[in-house]
Every structure is written in C-alpha cells, then in structure tokens.
From TrEMBL:
This is Uncharacterized protein. The lineage of its organism: Eukaryota, Metazoa, Ecdysozoa, Nematoda, Chromadorea. PANTHER family: CELL CYCLE CONTROL PROTEIN 50 (PTHR10926), CELL CYCLE CONTROL PROTEIN 50A (PTHR10926:SF23). One of its GO terms (cellular component) is Golgi apparatus. It is found in: Membrane. It holds the Pfam family CDC50. Belongs to the CDC50/LEM3 family. Keywords: Membrane, Transmembrane, Transmembrane helix.
Amino acid sequence: MFNDSFQLLFNGVHGGNVVVPFTTRDMVPERVRKRKFRNPKPKENETLCDAFANTTRPPWWQTDVCKLGANVQGVGVGFENIDLMIWMQTAALPNFRKLYRILDRETIQPHGKEPRNPL
C-alpha cells in the first residue's frame, strides 16, 4: 500500500525551521466519503478492529485497515482514511498525479510570513 511520511519545512523569519501546514479538508467530496468509504458499524462493546475481524489484509500492507490513520490527527480511521480514499481513486490519465495534501492557507499569514500558530 502506501507508506509515505515526510515533513515540508521552511526557514522561519526568526530562525529555525517551521513546518508547512497542510490539510485534507475538501480533498474528497462529502458525498463520495459517505457513499463509498464507510467503516462497518461495530457492535456494542466492540472496537473497529473487532468489526474487521473476519477480513484479511493483503500481504504487502504494513497496517491493518482498522488502524489506518489512527496515529495521524484529522485524516480519518479505517475506510474513512483520506489517504486510503485518494489511493483508491482511479487516475484520469496515465501521467495524472493525485493530490497528497492541500496547503492550509488559513494558518499562514500573507506574504510568506510564519504561520499564526506555529506547529
């Protein structure tokens, strides 16, 4: 599957590195998220992994589907994981590239200054 992990940094105005803020907001339309990518409903006193208990993950996947996104805030867990949704989308053309994240312009001040809330 996918196992990309990286950080994009820029040199801060006052020195030091600042993490470039990205978001997953509006990357997958809400109707697609609700129609195609829903986790099974766990029964009472069950976890999401219990709901996936009778499934088998492909041998090349490093993480069980119930744990996808569990350690990253804001990307969803399991089938509701944004990275999984993007990965599952078909590309329009052979050389078409899929989005990874969108620059979160709400947390960056104009003219390339440091973010309002540095991470």
